[in-house]
Structures are given as structure tokens and as C-alpha cells.
Amino acid sequence: MLFVYANCLKKRMMLNNNSKKTYFLFFFLILSCSAYGQNKASGKIVDEKNGKELNKVDIFINDDKTPALTTLSGSFTVQSDSIIRQLKFSRKSYTTETLDITPETAENIFVQLSQAKVSTIQEVVIQSGKPKYKNKKENPAYAIMQKVWAQKRNNGLEKFDTYSYKEYEKTQFDLNNLDSTFMKKKIFNKLDFIFDYADSTASGRLGLPIFINEAVYENYGKNKPDKDKKRTMVAQKTSGFQDNQVITVSAKNLYREINIYDNTLNYFDIGFQSPVGTDGFATYDYSLVDTISIRGEQAFQIRYQPKRKDVLAFQGNLYIDTDTYAVLGATLKSTQKINVNFVNSVYTQVEYDNPDETTFLPKKLVTEFEMSPFSKKKGSKSIIAKRSVDYSNYEFNKPIDPQLFKRKEEEYDDKFTDKDEAYWTKARPDTLSKAEQGVYSMLDQLQQTPKFNRIVKLVETLGSRYYNAFKGVDIGPIFSIYGRNEVEGDRIRLGARSYFGLNDPWRVQFYTAYGFKDQQVKYGVDARFMFNRLNRFMIGAGTSRDIVQLGGALTSGDGVTSPSSSTSTFFARGENISLSSVNQTNVFAAIEPWKNIQFRVDGVMQSIKSAIPEKFNLMYYKDGRLRKTVNDSHVTISVIARPGARFSQTGIDRYQARNLAPTIVLRYTRGIEGLFNADFNYDKLQFMFYKPFLIGTLGKTIVNFEAGKNFNTVPLALQNIIPANLSYGLVPNTFAQLNYYEFVADTYTTLHLEHHFNGKILSYIPLIKKLKFREVAFIRGAYGTLSDASKAINVEGIKYSAPSDHIYYEYGFGIENIGIGNLRLFRVDFNWRGNYLDRPDVSKFGIKAGMQVEF
What we know:
Blueprint: H1 2-14, H2 20-38, E1 40-47, E2 58-61, E3 69-70, E4 75-79, E5 86-90, E6 97-100, E7 109-113, H3 140-150, E8 154-155, E9 162-178, H4 180-183, E10 199-200, E11 206-222, E12 228-238, H5 245-252, E13 264-267, E14 270-273, E15 284-294, E16 297-306, E17 314-321, E18 327-334, E19 343-353, E20 359-371, E21 382-396, H6 421-427, H7 434-446, H8 450-464, E22 467-470, E23 472-475, E24 482-485, E25 489-499, E26 506-515, E27 521-532, E28 537-548, E29 580-594, E30 597-610, E31 620-622, E32 625-627, E33 630-641, E34 663-671, E35 682-694, E36 700-710, E37 720-721, E38 744-745, E39 747-756, E40 774-785, H9 788-792, E41 808-820, E42 823-833, E43 845-851
Parallel strand pairs: 1-7, 8-20
Antiparallel strand pairs: 1-4, 2-3, 2-5, 5-6, 9-11, 9-21, 10-11, 11-12, 13-14, 15-16, 16-17, 17-18, 18-19, 19-20, 20-21, 22-23, 23-25, 24-25, 25-26, 26-27, 27-28, 28-29, 29-30, 30-33, 31-32, 33-34, 34-35, 35-36, 36-39, 37-38, 39-40, 40-41, 41-42, 42-43
């Protein structure tokens, strides 16, 4: 630039020969330009063998021991306060080059670096087939993997005081393996235009993109003085479903973030053995295939495959840096015998940058699932669900305003969707294919088609359990219309709710029910309003009059319109006569000052009496008088934490996606005597913890722990009932072999442990392993105490007791994943009662069965 400026200045001087000052300035600039050229050098660095530009090259000036620059691309420019006489270029896996620099050679320097010979691993032998070794130490791949394990790396974001980076995410669903027969089916009548957007796949069959979501996020984090992080959505574009966050978030929640260095990789909340895990040799066979160049770096290519094909494991290639033994990239492909519901195959590709000897930074992550509800056969009709994430623009140790970490925006906002096409063209790391571009037009056209909208409405009805009768009104829940119990006989329940969209800030709902045996009308109605989507501040009120099974859960809420399954059981052991008639009015306020941490206050006024007084006695003594109705007014303060939970939208009702996030509840209840004619003062404290845990590749353990205490004497209607399940169905966190009200406690603790082995045991048994059943083991326990005063207050108090002599326990096993093809939704449990066997009318053994939608 100085040279250009000097030339321009020279022309000006020719126009003014009388300006001595101008001549002096001209010669001064010429001399300055010459001197400056010796203090600055620029050029390009390439690989000598393939001519590709190289980055991450350290450039040393003269005799300096510290590099003046580490390049980010193939081009470089260095500058020094002193005259540059020599440049040295150094890069791992390449020989070092040194060049002498003069003013004449300081520009357009062309540097060719040659790859250094690999000598760290002794006697490396490249194998073309599957080699056989007497022991793993003879395998050269084992020596390489030992180096990888010895230098196991952590995510580099943990080492910086602050960090930020950009994230581009694309989630896409494609219909796969289409053919002419499929496209001519009647269901596509008047919808056949969608196949104009289909394109050929690698298999030669047609694939049709049916859903695309693109999103851009900005990520910020800090590690000092305290840890915090923020992931902010900047833009989002969804094909045809801008308002349907259930579809968008459900698609994204199929995926989990993975770290290839972990021993266990989480897919669908199921543990797969990582090929880079320290115990990988117990699962995989490794073989060294070749040494290749990955993004300009020399890498060992190691092929791996599972020792047994019917385990949850992968096959593919690892690319290990020959100098630092860092993982540059990896491919992970499931075996053909993958035993995961609805999933035919899994494919993942990861790429990492390695800034130093101990850390890595994610560069790219691609995960692809082939899913089918019916068949695992190759070539069957399926859906390809693909998610790709590109990480870029890393910046470290730059000041970040603490206010940035405070919640200021809604998770889903209209402004995220108002970006134009010019923005997306710049934001995408790669351009969309023709088929991907067409899906936006196709979905817009589909939404104008009545037949398509009818199909969507059917799917939404089955998923939400409500039928949209007309704008703003839903009828349902449709699965609670009919029920039966001892008090009401046949029972009909009809309900409705207001519904304008997924992000409604308010909701009104009601139901009415009628029992043909007791000929009584029941009802419930409530209304809720949310003032702020960010902190989810809301208020609500409701009232109901109904027949209820109390004690169905220990840590239960105070809602008034949720249907009770325990009062509508078709098949059960014994008669359920332990039903109560409850009139209840509830008001509440809730707020979420921190993400996924809710504070809630409920005020409840209720009256409770037996629904069958001649068979089930709830009578008690109060001030020497016999009473049959309990009048209760109480205030409940709850703290509900769900760290790591994900929700599908920000409206008054949210759908929580399944993942390994825990649920923690701490609840205090204060009964207030005299308030609205209430009979008792009392204090109750309750705690609940629920969480699934991945236990390596051994499966998943689900833990549910509850504890509570009544600090005062209260009648049976207000006591803690250890929850029983008399039905033949599966009801979580209940005791299968208990009777209703068999155990009552002032103070209680319960623990439910359930482990899902994911077929690890049954896969060893011939013939049975072909059925792809999975085994479940469980144990449940309860301990509690009941004071003499609490027994004495009830008319039949002597019959009630707590599991105080011993911990009551049940145990058993189950078989899940029962079904055909990819549709394996049934589970059967075999339950044994462990103790308290001398009680009358106990059930020592029972079988429960039901459906569960699990991967």
C-alpha cells in the first residue's frame, strides 16, 4: 500500500515542480517503504507432496525461541520491530524449513514443507485384512491406542477463563427407499406432487426430504471465578412448521452430545461402548490399516469392529495423529443386529481440532439414524433422521459482560425466524442441496392441501390425546372417556380445554363425569394464566368434586382436572373399595427465576369423606366427637428442579423431552386449623429424587427416592399412604404386591431401583437372542413409622400400620422389547413380595403387563 501511495504522490509532484517539501516527502516515503519491507514478510505455506495449503505452522523470526505467529490458514504475514533476516517454519509431522530473508525476497514467499517420517511406533505393519495375533500386545493398533489412552484429552473449553463460539445446526428428516409402487398408494392421492421434490440416494432409490430445521447459536462460557454458560439462539428456519415446536424440538431431542474419549456414548439414553474408551479392547478388535493425511496432518487409520455383532457397539475407522496421538476424526456405524426400537442403523462422524497436548475442540459432528416403525430389513421404507453441527469462530480469554449470562430472551421467539435468505446463505458452512432447498416449497404447498391437514390432525390427536373440535377448543382427553370402579360402576367422562396454539399463555379446561351406579354428576374446572414467558410467572385456580383414590402417589401435586387412573381400572386383583369423595378448591402461583428451577405456592381447601362408608371407613375422633368428613385447608410451598431438562415450547403447558435429566422436589405443607372451617393444624415435609443413570454399557438404572414426615397427628385422609398398584398394568413408583392403605406412615422413605440391561444377558442364550427380548431387574423398598396417636385418632386405627419392623420390599424381573420387527412396545413384569407374608389377603406373586414407548 505504501508503494501505491508513493506512486500516486510521484504523479502529484510532477504537477508541482516548485514544491521542495513535496519532493522531500516523496523520498522520505521511498526510504521508509524500503526499510519497512525488511521488517515485514508474507507468503504461502503448502504441503510439498500434494500442494495443499497448511495451517497451524509456527513461524520463528531470526533466532527467537518463541513463534511470532501460528498460522490459521495457508497464507501468512509476520512483522517485527527489528530487521527480518531469517524465518523458520515448524509444524508437527513435518520437517522444519529455514529461509534467509532479504528486502527483495520478503514478499510472496513460497514455502513447501515435507512430511516427516513416522518413527514413534516401532515396527508398524499395515494390514489389509483382519489379522490374527497371539495376544493384543502383538497388535500394533494396540500400541497406538495405549498412547491415545495415556494422553486422553478433555474438551478444551474447560481450560480457558472465558470462551465463545458459533454453532450451526441442521436437522433433517428424509423418506428413504421410495419406489414407484409406494408412490402409487392411495394415501398419496392428491399429494403425489411431493415426489417431484425427491432425489436419488447413494443406494439408487429415491429419497424425499420432508423436514428441515436450521438453527444458529452463539455460545458463551466462563470457568473463573465461577462456572457459567449460555447458549443463545440467533436464528431458526423450519420447513413448513414454524409454529410447531413439538416437531422441531422432538427432532432435536433424538440426539445427545457425545465425547469420543468417554468410555460410554449416549444414544437414545442407551449406553454404547466407545471405540476410544479405555476399556475398548474388551469390546472391539482393532487393526492398523494405513497412514493418511487428514486436513494436512499425518494420521494412523485404525479400523475397529465389535467382537460380538449382537452387542450395542459400533464399527468404523479412527484417525489418530501420528505425532500427538490425538483423535482427529472417527466414524461410528452400528452393526446390522442393532437392538434398538424403531432404529435400523446409526452412523456418526466426528472431527476435532487439537490446539495442544491435553485438549480438543469439536469441529464437526454428524449423526444419522435410519428409523422404521415396522421392519429392519435392508431396503425397507424408512426415515433418515440426520443432524449435523458445525462449530466455528472460537475465541478465548476475552472479557465477557456478566449480564450476558442472565436470561433476557425467550427460548423461542418470532424474531429468530425473520432472517432473510442472504443471512442463511452466509450462515451455512455448506450450501443446501437441490432437494433440501425444495423441501421448504414442498411443505408450504402441502399445508394448503386438505388431505394433508387431515392426516396431521389425526397424528396430533393421538399424540396430545385431545381432538381439536374447532378453533380454540379441544375435546378430551379421549382415552379417559370411559372408566369403571366400585362406587360409580360404568363411568363416562367428557372434557374440553381452550387451545389456540402450543405457546398459549393461558388455558381454561373442565370436565364432567357421570356414574351409572351412584347416579351422581362430578366435575372439575380450572384456569391458568402466565404473565411472563421468561421466568414463567403464572397464577391459577380450580375446583372439583369427584371420586378419588387417595394415596396413589406420595409426592403428588394439587391439580384438580387431571384424570385418576386408579379410579377407572378395568382389570385388577380384588375389589377397590378404598375410594374417597373429595371436594377441592385450589389456587396457586408459580415462578421460575432460574432456568428449570420452579418455586410454587398452592392454597388448598378441601373436604374428604369415604365414597363407600359401609365398606371403607374414614371416620375419626376430633375433640371426643366422631367425625366422618375431614375439612382441610393448607398451604404448600414447593421447589421443583429439573436441571438439564428440555421442553418443546414456552407456553402455559410444556412437553418435557426424555433424557437423563433428574427431577428433584422439596415440598413443605402447613395445615391451618380454623381457616375455612379446617379441622387441623399440621406440618408436613416431603422430598423426592428421580433420575435415570447410564451404567456404562451394562444398561440404565432408574432411581426414585422419596422421604417425608408428618410432624402432627392427623386422620387417615391426610396421612402418607405407601402407594399400591392393584391393577394388572404397569404403574411407576408404586408397589405391585401391596393392598391400598396396607401401610400408612407419619414418617416414610421409599426407594425404587430398576435396571434395564438392554438385552446384554439374553443375547448370550441361543434361540432366545433371536427374539431380541431385553431383561429388566427391579427391587422396591419402603420403611416408615406410625405413632400411637395417629392410630388412635381413626375409628379403625388399629388395623393401620407402617413398615417399621422391617423394610418392606418387593423384587422381580421383567421382559421388555416384546413385539414384531421394529414395533416392540410390550413389557411383562414378574413381581414377588419379599416379607410381611403373614398378613391376611396378601398377594405373594403377581404379573403386570403394559405398553412402554422406549428406544
